[in-house]
Design brief:
The chain has helices at about 105-120, 130-145, 150-160, 220-225, 235-245, 250-255, 355-370, 385-400, 415-425, 495-500, 505-515, and strands at about 10-15, 20-30, 35-40, 40-50, 55-60, 65-75, 75-85, 85-95, 170, 185-190, 195-200, 210-215, 215-220, 260-270, 275-280, 305-310, 330, 340-345, 370-375, 405-410, 430-435, 440-445, 445-450, 455-460, 465, 480, 490. With about 525 residues, it is an alpha+beta fold. Helix 8 (about 385-400) packs parallel to helix 9 (about 415-425).
């Protein structure tokens, strides 16, 4: 008689998706014919779960009715198929959640073990040598947990994951999640100057101050010390440091400061110049993404009563800071026949679908026949690259024969680089600004392994993106392009004086180049 035979209650691995593999977790109730199927965060209830020997059958509750599941268990693997409208094969690994930790040390060791086993099994971005160093770093950390505080342990885990040398492979701490405390200031690098661009109203005197030292460590050195927390190129490290340098927990974790509850800053170039001590507010955890570039615009609302460095210029902001709440928009530049298109997030906007926007901007191109196109990707940190691919292809085809510019920056990342590389591959485009926030070849997609005690999410990558002429890795899902490079043709760095004056040096450089061309 069929029965629910004793079996591992938890399984995780990959299900075939289109175009990317889908990270899948199957959890079975030990004493009932039920469970859950998690597909990259989408949870489906399971019913009719039956084990017959090594064969598993179940139904997942889909929006259009039951979705049959059939699988066979072989040792620690569960190999089967989800038979929906499209059959999706999967191969899952058994895993056992640890028992409740008896104390703090055991809790952290369980989290480290989850990285060494479940995370390591899911990720594909580590080279063989990097994987060895990752496991060595975790073993060392596990031994040294008794002498480390929590922030040091978190920093060591983040640094171990960053050994993948892949910016998508990371411990979510401050951008995709808010898991560490931050000071009541927001920072941005203007060349070599670290400036305060946003602060609470009762500390408005800090606006514009240059942070020369944190805890007695000069800003440049502090930046180098927080760099190992996240992988990435120099541009991405600069972007991520805006978060880490404002987080006392991160700063303590890497040894910049010793007391995470009070932080001494040395300020210059402002009325508040000198040493100040800031108390660290309580953590307000969040699973919502926070972009550091939002703090550059006074029009992006902040939680609480904050002031921003350009509050006095709200009526005359540079174009790229005027609509921070919209993922995409366009504007014909006054005094020229150039069309400016801003694409700051590869995600559906709350007011208009990407497809509708694409139709609208293409109609504008057909109607006005612009003399030049300016595509601003400097703040596009990614999202769903599939949403904008059709729009980018249509826009590229419709603007052939006219000067075309793409503005990039340290926050051009992930899907933002996908679109950048597609334009570079097509040709006849001038890149202006800072270098983008990643290389042409990367690992991405993936999912999260939630550590059992801290609750931190470790994000792994499992699909390849090969945007250089180098071929895709064998036997993996991969998006292949042949972009020669994505380095700026007109490299620029925005200085504090430019920003404070309300200038956009990238757009000014484009206008100068058009004038030189006689366009």
């Amino acid at each position: 008689m069929p029965s629910r035979a004793a079996a591992a209650p938890n399984w995780e691995g990959e299900m075939r998706g289109d175009p990317w593999p889908i990270f899948t977790t199957l959890t079975l109730a030990p004493d009932a014919p039920t469970g859950t199927l998690d597909l990259n965060g989408q949870k489906l209830e399971l019913t009719d779960v039956i084990w017959s020997g090594e064969r598993l059958t179940a139904n997942a509750k889909g929006s259009r009715g039951p979705i049959p599941i059939e699988a066979m268990r072989t040792d620690d693997r569960l190999i089967g198929t989800l038979r929906g409208q499209t059959e999706r094969p999967f191969e899952l690994r058994a895993f056992v959640l640890p028992k409740a930790a008896a104390n703090r040390l055991e809790a952290w060791r369980q989290d480290v073990d989850a990285l060494a086993t479940r995370f390591a099994a899911a990720d594909r971005s580590f080279s063989p040598d990097a994987r060895v160093r990752f496991q060595e770093a975790l073993r060392s950390l596990r031994r040294e947990i008794p002498r480390l505080n929590d922030n040091q342990i978190i920093a060591r885990m983040a640094a171990a994951i960053a050994l993948a040398d892949n910016a998508h492979t990371r411990l979510y701490l401050l951008r995709n999640r808010t898991a560490l405390r931050r000071l009541p200031i927001r920072l941005w690098w203007f060349g070599d100057d670290l400036r305060i661009v946003r602060a609470p109203r009762d500390q408005a005197g800090f606006l514009g101050c240059r942070v020369t030292a944190i805890g007695g460590v000069d800003a440049a050195t502090a930046k180098r010390r927080v760099a190992p927390l996240f992988a990435g190129n120099a541009s991405w490290q600069t972007y991520k440091s805006s978060y880490s340098l404002s987080s006392p927990d991160a700063l303590q974790g890497v040894g910049v400061i010793t007391d995470a509850d009070r932080v001494k800053l040395t300020l210059a170039d402002c009325p508040a110049a000198g040493q100040v001590t800031m108390a660290t507010p309580a953590l307000v955890p969040s699973d919502k993404a926070v972009e550091a570039w939002w703090d550059l615009s006074p029009l992006k609302a902040a939680t609480g009563d904050w002031v921003q460095a350009l509050d006095d210029k709200r009526a005359s902001l540079p174009l790229h800071l005027r609509q921070p709440d919209h993922n995409y928009w366009y504007e014909a530049l006054s005094g020229t026949n150039a069309l400016y298109v801003n694409y700051s997030r590869s995600q559906e906007d709350a007011t208009e679908t990407t497809a509708a926007f694409a139709d609208r901007v293409l109609a504008e191109v057909a109607r006005t026949k612009p003399s030049a196109l300016i595509l601003d990707l400097r703040f596009n940190t990614g999202g769903n690259l599939e949403l904008g691919r059709d729009m980018m292809q249509r826009l590229e085809q419709a603007t052939r024969g006219i000067p075309r510019y793409i503005i990039t920056g340290r926050a051009t990342f992930s899907a933002g680089i996908t679109h950048l590389a597609s334009w570079r591959e097509a040709g006849n485009v001038t890149i202006v600004g800072e270098p983008a926030g990643d290389r042409l070849d990367m690992w991405a997609e993936g999912g999260n392994i939630r550590l059992p005690n801290s609750g931190l999410d470790a994000h792994f990558a499992n699909a390849a993106h090969s945007y250089s002429p180098t071929p895709c890795p064998p036997d993996v899902a991969c998006l292949d392009m042949a972009s020669p490079d994505i380095a700026p043709d007109i490299p620029l760095t925005e200085r504090w004086a430019d920003y404070r004056a309300g200038r956009d040096v990238a757009l000014e450089a484009i206008m100068a180049d058009l004038a030189r061309r006689g366009s």
